DNA sequence: AAGTCGAGCAACCGCGTTTAC
DNA sequence: GGTAAACGCGGTTGCTCGACT
């Protein structure tokens, strides 16, 4: 079945938007709100598909868009978030008010990747360029069965270095915490253990205008209060709270986890147990 | 001045997920 | 529960514009 069949029913415009089209879409949404995107073009008098209207609104017309050059701080935040989240642009965008996932994705592909390489960092793994290859070789020879289970981890590619039980045996938990990535690794644990509340949206703007969540209008675990969390991690780091040893999760059950949510639940169970004591210190640190 | 190249950006496409019936 | 439609996301494409030759 052809998707977005509404686009095929009639000759719809494609390509760049004219100022007239922008004006029509903008005034329609400001007046009536989004409602159903598929009906927007008809109601606004546009020969576009709803999908195209949605994209134009989110990436260009939204009144809360910041536009302009990214600051150094924004760039660094994007790099940090990419290290944790991978190419989850909408989730990354949810941490940068006024920025869209498309904008961030473009920045990453055109600029930040290059900058990281110049710093000698692999933009995919965020490891020093020299280490990437040797680590890959080591892990594949050492853990031949890891590949079979790898598909299950691809839901969380950015977490693999932290959570992969084959790469990080339980008897060496310090690997997780004594590196320079201490905060980042711990953040990932907490994020996926449900210890932080990522269910809330970041932008305090009405859903009516279709940008209540991320720039892509959807985010399953918006990392709200990101900055606060990072500050808290700094606090944790400075206060020398003893990080917990990871308790081995029931990895065999992971094979039965049908969705990333199942997997998250599974992680939550084991990580709650692992991080419990640490978390109470962490929460205190937030206030 | 004309041609080429690359960076930056806007928009499209395809697919997975969610929702409505 | 099955199906179709709508939505959302990430990857990719293609256009524009400025720098360079």
From TrEMBL:
Q: Name one GO cellular component term.
A: nucleus
Top-rank taxon of the source lineage equals: Eukaryota
A Pfam family in this protein? Answer: Myb_DNA-binding
**PROSITE patterns, per this entry?**
HTH_MYB, MYB_LIKE
Keyword tags? DNA-binding, Nucleus, Repeat, Transcription, Transcription regulation
Compartments (UniProt record): Nucleus
List, for all copies, the residue spans of the domain called HTH myb-type.
9-61, 62-116
Concerning SMART domains, the annotation shows: SANT
Q: Which residues form the Myb-like domain?
A: 9-61, 62-112
Under Gene Ontology molecular function, one entry of this record is:
transcription cis-regulatory region binding
Q: What is this protein called?
A: Myb-related protein Hv33-like
Q: What is the native source organism of this protein?
A: Canna indica (Indian-shot)
